[in-house]
Amino acid sequence: MIDSHCHLDLPEFEPDWQDVLSSAVTQGVERILIPGTTVSGWQRQHDMAADNVQLDVAFGLHPYFFPDDPQDALASLRKQLQTTMIKPVAIGEIGVDGAIDTPLKAQQALFEAQLEVASEQSLPVILHHRRSHHLLLESIKRSRFTHGGVIHAFSGSEQVARQYIDAGFKLGIGGTITYSRAQKTRQTVANIPLQHLLLETDAPDMPMSGRQGARNEPQFIGEVVAALADLHGIAPEVVTEQTTANYFALFGSRTQCK
């Protein structure tokens, strides 16, 4: 199993992240991808990955932490990509969030600038969405972005899902589908072929059903596998095999990226 989206670098994990990683590996987690959110956080991601071959990283500017000076932050991103010893497998987590105060036009401009950086580096992207599918799809089309990526924590209609798939993207599927009340998302995921899906936890957030109020961890990703297997009527091993293949098809491996 591969957790394609886990914020193992956040303060919630600082006291015991190595134990968390060890527990995940014990439970069959082969790799974990840590997405970037801020300029100040990239070095910690880098250092963690340098000491642990199971970790992949992406660098990006998350809209929720919109920088005071976007141009300076973009310059820092380009510098990070030029100087890092651990090459990222993607640009992310980037996107547009329709539920925060930052003007949507400013968010979309920063998003499209990062799509340009990803194109320059021939890297896929990890996309954040919240009330913004139409804006993301608009920007992808306008930017003529062709390197694909993943829609993190996908929720939406089958029509929207297929628009992303047609644009070369995979869908990140996490704990939401472990909740019986999430019928719309569960039905959409059930109708999407497995080759378009990735596993994720978004730990420490988005706890699985039955674990509300507790810190989410990558070791619990097997519960997403079980839910996907149930929705598709297939064995969990098939889910694991296909989503692992999907991950490497999209992001490659660190051996290839060094």
Question: Count of DSSP helices?
Answer: 10
Helix content: 40-55%
Provide the residue-averaged pLDDT.
96
What are the secondary-structure elements, in order, as H or E?
Answer: EHEHEHEHEHEHEHEHHH
Evaluate the radius of gyration.
Answer: 17 Å
Strand content: 5-15%
Going by CATH, the homologous superfamily would be: Metal-dependent hydrolases
Q: Could you say what the CATH topology is called?
A: TIM Barrel
Shape summary? globular
The N- to C-terminal Cα distance equals: 22 Å
Strand tally is: 8
Name of the CATH class: Alpha Beta
Total count of domains:
1
> How can the largest sheet be summarized?
8 strands, parallel
CATH architecture: Alpha-Beta Barrel
What spatial order of strands do you see in the largest sheet? Answer: 1-2-3-4-5-6-7-8
Any chance you could write out the topology, listing elements then pairs?
Blueprint: E1 2-3, H1 17-26, E2 31-34, H2 42-50, E3 55-59, H3 70-83, E4 90-97, H4 104-121, E5 125-130, H5 133-143, E6 149-151, H6 158-166, E7 169-173, H7 183-191, E8 197-199, H8 222-232, H9 236-251, H10 254-257
Parallel strand pairs: 1-2, 2-3, 3-4, 4-5, 5-6, 6-7, 7-8
